[in-house]
From TrEMBL:
<dbReference type="GO" id="GO:0006956">
    <property type="term" value="P:complement activation"/>
</dbReference>
<dbReference type="Pfam" id="PF00084">
    <property type="entry name" value="Sushi"/>
</dbReference>
<feature type="disulfide bond">
    <location>
        <begin position="47"/>
        <end position="90"/>
    </location>
</feature>
<dbReference type="GO" id="GO:0005615">
    <property type="term" value="C:extracellular space"/>
</dbReference>
<dbReference type="InterPro" id="IPR000436">
    <property type="entry name" value="Sushi_SCR_CCP_dom"/>
</dbReference>
<keyword id="KW-0732">Signal</keyword>
<protein>
    <recommendedName>
        <fullName>Sushi domain-containing protein</fullName>
    </recommendedName>
</protein>
<dbReference type="InterPro" id="IPR051503">
    <property type="entry name" value="ComplSys_Reg/VirEntry_Med"/>
</dbReference>
<dbReference type="InterPro" id="IPR035976">
    <property type="entry name" value="Sushi/SCR/CCP_sf"/>
</dbReference>
<feature type="domain" description="Sushi">
    <location>
        <begin position="45"/>
        <end position="103"/>
    </location>
</feature>
<feature type="signal peptide">
    <location>
        <begin position="1"/>
        <end position="18"/>
    </location>
</feature>
<keyword id="KW-1015">Disulfide bond</keyword>
<dbReference type="GO" id="GO:0001851">
    <property type="term" value="F:complement component C3b binding"/>
</dbReference>
<keyword id="KW-0768">Sushi</keyword>
Amino acid sequence: MNWLSYITLLLLWRCCTSQKFPVYQQQQVAYQELIDPVIVSGSSTNCGPPPVIDHAMLLASSRVEFLTGSTVFYQCYRLHEMEGTPAARCFNGRWIGVPKCVKTCRADDSDMENNNIQLRWITKSTSLTSSDYWMEFECKPGFRKDPSSPPFRKQCIKGPWVYPRCI
């Protein structure tokens, strides 16, 4: 590198570092929250009441109309887990970012009793979701595996499953 290139780079570096440019953090944006600048007009439309979500309660006032840019929050009921973020936002007449609440996997005592099984072991979840783990069942003493039974080792990814059976 010759001395002129060096001086140019040095001046450019000093000029840029002396400025107070804002630093923006990169964030992930859900697909439905992307805005098409061709479609977006200068006028905004308000939203009606936020959508009702199965197995969740809305943490917002019961208004009839919400301004564009308003945010409401949801909370899933017990034994349910949220898919998405708890916040939904009003944008030009529609709600975006509305989450879902799905049933988490649980070893239910009555279901295990009806199928003559017991919990043998369970792994801890390695992810942030409470329903991402493995369970293994075994027959209760005096019972044997039903040949048509589903597998005794289950990975819970979402929602309920079919229990194995012993006869």
